[in-house]
């Protein structure tokens, strides 16, 4: 199963590293034929400078990547990404062919801009709740939620909430047993309820 995580300059490090770790750790318990194939995608393949000048090399760009089962949009300083029509169009297009689309933190703004979420129940980082409500008034933006699962779209709160959401995704895509094993291996106290 292919899990692509979209990142960009000033993306929050744990927003993509947390989900990446969850899926790569879960794969340790799976046979080679059923592993999660998790990778990073950016507008242009190569170096991305995440928050704190954390330098990351992506595996693919938005014009050249394997087919996706799951697309995760990371959060961070997202304002410049919202201005990129090619990125917004890509998110919109890819979201139509994936089983699940998810966001961590302010990644919800990119999903909203791409009209992946329109009148959905969603959440984001507590600091950005009011801005998301104001920018996209048809969304039902919830406070104090680690993540919200609405059919094939899942949004999560800020930073570490993306780990809880990703464990939920492992449960949804495979099994609760695998999600529990993954959380234990990571020594992470999984908050199962959104």
Helix count, DSSP H or I runs of 4 or more residues: 7
Low-confidence stretches: none
Could you tell me the CATH topology label.
Rossmann fold
The total beta strand count reads 11
Mean pLDDT: 95
Seen as an oligomer or otherwise, the chain set is single chain
Measured distance between first and last alpha carbons: 24 Å
Order of helices and strands: EHEEEEEHHEHEHEEEHH
Determine the structural class based on helices, strands and strand pairing.
alpha/beta
For the largest beta-sheet, the strand count, sense and barrel status come to:
7 strands, mixed
Task: Walk across the major sheet and give the strand order.
Answer: 5-2-1-6-7-11-10
What do we call the CATH homologous superfamily? Class I glutamine amidotransferase (GATase) domain
CATH top level assignment:
Alpha Beta
> How many domains is the backbone divided into?
1
Description of the molecule:
There is one protein chain. The protein has 194 residues and is α/β, with parallel strands linked by helices. The protein has a single domain, classed as Rossmann fold, CATH 3.40.50.880. It contains seven helices and eleven strands. It has a seven-stranded mixed β-sheet, with helices on both faces. A hairpin with a 3-residue loop joins strand 3 and strand 4. Helix 1 runs parallel beside helix 6, helix 1 packs across helix 7 and helix 6 runs antiparallel to helix 7. The longest helix is centred in the N-terminal third of the chain and has 15 residues. It is globular and about 45 Å long.
Please give a quick description of this structure.
With 194 residues, the protein is of the alpha/beta class.
